[in-house]
Amino acid sequence: MSKSTNTTNSSSCKLIYNAESSRLKYFFYKLLICVFVLISHSSIASTISGSIRDSKTKESIPFANVVIKNTTNGMMSDIEGSFILDVEKFPCTLVIKFIGYKTNEITVKNQEQILDILLEEDVYSLNEIIVKPDNAYERSLLRKVVKNRKRNNPDHLSNLSYTDYTRTTVFLSNLGIKTAQSGTFKESADAFVKTSESTLMMPFFMDETVSSHQRADKRKQSQVIAQKTDGILSQINTQVKSILEKKITTEFNFYNNQINILARGFPSPISNTGLLYYNIYLSDSTIYNNIKHYKFNYFPKSYKNITFKGHFWVESESWALTEIKASLPNSANLNFVKDLEVFVNYEKLNKDQWFYKTQKINLKLTLNKKEGKKRKKKNFDVQKLICYRNANTNTIQLLNTNSKSEYLIQNSIESSEEILAIRKEFAPLDSFERSAYTGIKKLKENKFIRVADKFSAMTINGYYNMGKLDLGPYFSFYRKNEIEGNRFTIPLRTSEKLFKNFMLGAYVGYGNKNKEFAYGGNMKYLLPNTQRSILSTNYHYDYFDLTKNKFIEFIRENPYQQGGGNIVSSFTSKIPNPYMMRNRHFDITYEHQLNKSFGLLIRPSLNRYYSNYNLIFNKRGDDLPYFDTQNLMLDLRLSFGQDYDEGYFSRIYYGNQKPVFHFTTLLGQYKLPIASGNKSGYYANLNVSMKNRVNMGPMFLKTMVEGGAILGNVPYPLLQLPRGTRDIGAARYHFNLLHHTSFASDLYMSAHLSLNCGGIIFNKLPLVKKLNLREIVTFKAYYGKLLGEHDKVLNMPNMLQAPNKAPYMEMGFGITNIFKCLRVEYVNRINRGDAFNKFSSKHGFRFRIEVSF
Question: Which segments cross the bilayer (predicted)?
Answer without folding.
Answer: 27-48
